[in-house]
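Backbone shape codes:
***
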Amino acid sequence: MADRLHVRADGPITTVEFDHPPINIYDVATRDTLCEVLRGVQADPGVRVVVFTASGDHFSAGADLKEFGTAPSVWAMRDARWGRDVWGLLRGVAVPMVASMQGYAVGFGFELALQCDYRLAADDCVLSLPEARIGMIPAGGASQTLSRVADTSAALATVLLSDRIAATDALARGFVDEVLPRAALVSRTEEVARTLASRPAATVRAAKAAV
């Protein structure tokens, strides 16, 4: 799936780059490949940090709505959901995960970032959970993860209103850890990843598990 996902290993740092232009839509093919990558990360004791980035102007504008309802049956959909549970795999990653976001981080993009341990946003980043507009709730656990990184009222308002949240506002609400100029996003992401990778591996894993 080189046309959807690029994985680079730089010593203890593994970078996963989404590459599905123009807006890095998350589809079934991307999900299946991401599951394999995450299984590999979990199995490799040499990985100390995982970084999620994206090519182009946007981190991810969410799931491919054209694929909704295309499973042959509700049972097939359930089996696919549990057999390729990307969210469960993300929760099982014992090392720090960093999200480095630009442009749209919507739906899947925002939910993936919420599964991470450190979130960097370029100043052009816009976050949103739009599911309520189409009669859904966030499918990747944001109803739980967002209320754990910020206060419950802000999380509930974000889910219910489905507003688009600018990066500076997201920082004020506690949804992201840093906002920086777009031109500085890559270098700052690398700096954070190197800092995390330099810490004693066992200590970092224990600290993540404890928190």
Notes: The beta strands are 5-10, 13-18, 49-54, 97-101, 104-106, 118-122, 126-128, 165-166, 178-180.
